[in-house]
User: Fold this.
Amino acid sequence: MSEINNTLVVVGVQWGDEGKGKMTDYLGQKADVVVRYQGGNNAGHTITFGGNKYALQSIPSGVFNPHIKNVMANGMVINPKAAIGELEGLKERGITDFQLFISDRAAVIMPYHIALDGAYEALKGGKQIGTTKKGIGPAYCDKYSRVGIRIGDLIDPEYFAERLRDALTQKNLELRALGLEEFDFDTLYKEFLAYGEILRPYICDTSILLNKEIEEGKKVLFEGAQGVMLCIENGTYPFVTSSSPTAASVPLGAGVAPRYINRALGICKAYTTRVGAGPFPTELEGELADYIRERGHEYGTVTGRPRRVGYLDAVGLRHACRISGINYLSIMLFDVLTGVETLKICTGYELDGKVIDYVPATLSALERCKPIYIEMDGWKEEIEDVRDFDALPATAKAYLRKIEELTNTEIAVVSVGPDRTQTIMIKDIF
Ligand code: IMP
Assistant:
């Protein structure tokens, strides 16, 4: 069997919102297939080109290139109503010529999942996760409890009736206990059968399609949502999402063999942000945080919430690079740091008087971690028009080299603005 080297996974290495949409779109210009393999419409991928800005939630970022096959694979949780809304939104803006394939095995987010997401958060008192309230967690729970509805069920009316009846028996009991409104079988059944009919032309076995494309040597880009620090297995549990946005999750979530996945590009902001609650050792407050938030437009694409802002955390990055086998990094929003006089990078944590260089597993330990910083000089020059690494200010280059040294990972791309063209390609990796 010949060696496969035509696949690339794009992985967020922080808490999401690193700019994966821009990189998937940029690299996607060379791709034949773009695949979402986990998460759902909790993601917000912003893509800017030709003076237009598009925000995608569950539709893969390759949708703007008519020659690309876009796959929503089995590891996703899909809200059919929201996905149809996204497709209509694209059509209204003239994006009509696209190829989309939705896995018949992907889980469906039902309205009761959204109701339960809100209710579980309310029950947590002051300890809310700060979820996107899109029903992501409850939909994954049902999948693993084996009462989930799958996309393929929506186009098989008799079987769907059976599945929905079984699910509602459980769900309505739970909703009643929580004092929430129950869902009526007939109403939901009709509504979701109608969604099934709209989506029918896109629904297929995407694993067969993907394996064929990979084996034929086509270029396949796997687009992760969220980031490794939000991973259900390796993130800052319980302040995480309910899926794994790592490269390891691709084979399972897309139905391809692990041997087909051999390269991962880590998408990393030049600083750190986080939306929602949970530990954030390098968090900043005050003037510098506001400066970065405003220059970086750090407000959630999905929820509009202001993002928490902090210095770059090399401890977290090493954790993410190790777990996701990151081969190269892409440093995003680098232009945002112009004008910051002194930049800091966290190189270790002090935990109960000891210096550690890893991310501890428990929340209580992570909350006690105090960052240990190195300081570097910033730069004053605006860099959004720079297209060549050598043309960057010396201190900017030094900051990038330091990131490589601290993460032991080569930087292949530096992004200096939201547009496709505002990209410094140091190494062609796809
Ligand atoms: P959920 O995914 O809606 O269950 O939310 C769980 C946590 O993940 C919350 O802290 C969210 O803010 C965070 N989260 C989910 N999706 C994204 C994303 O695309 N970017 C950044 N944070 C996210």
